[in-house]
Amino acid sequence: MSTENLLQLQGVHTHIGAYHILHGVDLAVPKGQLTMLLGRNGAGKTTTLRTIMGLWQASQGSIHFNGRDITRMHTPQIAHLNIAYVPENMGIFADLTVKENLLLAARKASNAARMDQERLQWIFKLFPAVEKFWNHPAGKLSGGQKQMVAVARAIIEPRDLLIVDEPSKGLAPAIINNMIEAFDQLKKSGVTILLVEQNINFAKRLGDTVAVMDNGRVVHAGSMAALAADEALQQSLLGLSL
């Protein structure tokens, strides 16, 4: 597996109004791997994702994707580089059907029949609920089903990088297991993934590499397996054990 970094943040600072949220974030996301971004609430994880996507502008530092400087790019330009982002609130269009939600993201398809059918079948295998509720309004689905729709929508076209904010939040254990299997399959298909997560079991089962944030900085980076095996380190970084 290549250890070349697909995404790299160096010394990234982000201000939101009068607030200085990120204080020099250094983060590397190796190509073909699943990187976990962990940390207590308020550590700056979501701000980091939003800064990568250009939703908030870095006030200092640089962000490189695939060797290209994207620090000053606008969100649509960043998305066009084959980066998909699933925010914590999922961003589902509640009044549209599941099919319409996915069609919106399938840039090459003008109607459902023109979607890549082979890819659609692959998504249905990852997330059976997407097929089951294909013609249902997305707003009527459960939290877990909405999360599946949000991820399915992000991967309806092939992506080089998938960024997901807390995919397991509020989900039942059975749905979390389904989500873990789906991300594992995605990783095996060659997608590089950056996940913010609070569920440590989720992180432990999926992560190749890990970065832990505290007070707007990355305070630890390394292999997920090494962190999972070191209870003293977990306790000092996260105040919990895996």
TrEMBL record:
In which domain of life is the source organism classified? Bacteria
Q: Which organism is it from?
A: Paenacidovorax monticola
Q: What is this protein called?
A: ABC transporter ATP-binding protein
Family in the record: Belongs to the ABC transporter superfamily.
Chain coiled-coil ranges: none
Pfam family for this entry, one: ABC_tran
A biological process (GO) of this protein is: L-amino acid transport
Q: Which residues form the ABC transporter domain?
A: 7-240
Is Ribosomal protein included in the keywords of this UniProt record?
Answer: no
